[in-house]
Amino acid sequence: MFTLDQVVPWGRSFDEYRRMFALTNHDLCLRIIGCGDGPASFNAEATRLGFRVISCDPIYRWDAVHIEDRIAATYNEVLEQVRKNVDEFVWASIRSVEELGLVRMAAMKEFLSDYPVGKNEGRYIDAALPILPFPSESFDLALSSHLLFLYTTQLGEDFHRAAVREMCRVANEVRIFPLLALGGRRSAFVERIADECGNSAFEVSIDNVPYEFQRGGNQMMRIRRI
């Protein structure tokens, strides 16, 4: 079973974000915050296309050299875990472990090339869930990619509840992908979080999306302010 002891820097691309979160052209024109984006290239590519994205992650307290060193320190570990658990993944758009490494490293290099400028422009903010330094409803859409639910064991239920409440505070809509924990099983927190949000001033749905790399990981949670 694929497992990691802690959250690691591992970046996805703009195209992957579009598919993971079923982002429409209209969605991309909204005020977007990415929570726990790490070394994803979503912000860099979205900015180049004229969209507005703020990314938050505690890794942004470091400079580009330090982040690159962190990536290098975990890169082989992640790929080795994938090699040992190849059946947990769908090898369609990405056809091999070697290609996965190339795709992920390309996204992370795109991030690293943009990071110094983006940090100066205020697009990369050193901040971590469950406390974000923004007024309520500062954003239209908050995204969480491969953090909440994925690290179910490592982060725990109290963190998940507080993190989702905080995302709902700063944005009118929240989308979380995937709903699987490491190892490929649906997180035990999905239904509990959905019930908690559904009992407050939010509408919750589980939506299929046009993306699947973790086998069975083709759904996101969508939480909308009523």
The percentage of residues in β strands lies in 15-25%
Counted up, domains total 1
Average pLDDT for all residues:
95
CATH homologous group name: Vaccinia Virus protein VP39
Head-to-tail CA distance between termini: 39 Å
Name the helix and strand elements from N-terminus to C-terminus, one letter apiece.
HHEHEHHEEHEHEE
Radius of gyration based on Cα positions: 16 Å
Q: Record the strand order, biggest sheet.
A: 3-2-1-4-5-7-6
Strand elements, count: 7
Describe the structure.
It is globular, with a radius of gyration of 16 Å. It has a single domain (14-225), classed as Rossmann fold (3-Layer(aba) Sandwich), CATH 3.40.50. It has 226 residues and is of the alpha/beta class. It has a 7-stranded mixed sheet with strand order 3-2-1-4-5-7-6, with helices on both faces. Helices cover 41% and strands 17% of the residues. The longest helix is centred in the middle third of the chain and has 24 residues, at 97-120.
